[in-house]
Every structure is written in C-alpha cells, then in structure tokens.
C-alpha cells in the first residue's frame, strides 16, 4: 500500500504501525521523534520507520509525505542491507518519488511486479548501491495517470470534472475508459479507493479515526463512519479491533 498525503495542519502527529515498515519521502521540514531520538528531515529527505514503536512527527509548516507500507521478507540465504533512518536524497529525490507514486496503480494490475519495484526503490536507498530498471504497467495511459492522480490526492476533494480537465479529456471519455479498465465509473473508483485506504489505516495503524477520515478526504467523522458501515458492514471501531 502506498499513498501521498499533506501534513502540517496539526503541528504534531502521533501514531504506531502494528505490522508494517514505512518508507516516507518528505517535501517539507520537521522532525521524527522515535525511541527517544530525534531525526530532523528537510525537503528531499527519505525516512524509514518500523512497526511497534511510537512515532511522533513534528512539522514546521506544510509537508507532503509520499509513502509506502511494506513487510520485509528475508529469504533463506539472503543478506541484510542497512538503510539510514533519515537520508538526504539530493538530485535522486524527484526520480524516486515518481517511482513510488506509481506503486498503487501498478499493484492493482501486477502485484508481484509492484513488490519487486518497491524492493528496487529500497535498494536504491542503500548507500553506494546502484539503480535497477523495472518494467512499466500495461494499462491505458489515461487510466494509469488518473489512478495515480487519485492516489496522490486521496486526502483532497476530487471531482471527476476536474480530473478530466487535468487529463485534457471529457468526463464521458474518462468514464468510458475507467469502465472498460475497472468495471466501474470514475466516481465509484474514487469512493472505493478512499474506503480501501481507510480500511488499511484502521487495521494496520494506531492513527486516530478522526485523522484517518481527514486523510481519505472525508473530514466529517459522522459521514465517514456511515460510509465505512455501508462498505464493510461494521463500524470503524470494529475494523480496528480485527
């Protein structure tokens, strides 16, 4: 699971991941407080965190995080590789951010390839390692771009009209392409992605429910609770306890 989120409305955010490691690429400045240590970050930094520890992010203004959750799987005969908790990516940042932003759409079509691409991104964060090329997904480019835009702006209001304008096509054509590729309209796809992201955060993080609602673009908590019940036949608190 990967995504894109704007932070900074709350100066400090606290939560804990229960199973997943997390890779974050930062556009903004602040500090990560973890296990009694402080790790400053700036524009163009990458950070790694692991499950079971209390995380506190202090933001110095608006900060955008492009992130991916993952579970390391060391195969027999494999070797460990050290990735710094925080590092300045310099000129590599934009390229790695673009690669990370494609993971969600790639995973929907080729999950094994998406996992391989994530490991490639992680290896690029190991000091002195070299870059490896990966294949790109085979889906209509307009649909792929639309899916990436939706995932990158999931915490914002997304209208089909504005999305079509951004892609320079008509709403009718965009819906036709989405229907052919996914079996649902663009609007239905957006709503489903919000719910999938919310369910993931409810079941795999300790992020407060109100904060999750804001993260998936549904700041009205009552409306968020109603939608979760409609999609998953149980309230958010029950999903959290699974």
From TrEMBL:
Record key words, sorted: DNA-binding, Transcription, Transcription regulation
Ranges where the HTH araC/xylS-type domain occurs: 144-242
Keyword match Transcription regulation: yes
Pfam hit, one: HTH_18
Coiled coil: none
Keyword match Hydrolase: no
Name by which UniProt lists this protein: AraC family transcriptional regulator
Organism field: Thalassobacterium sedimentorum
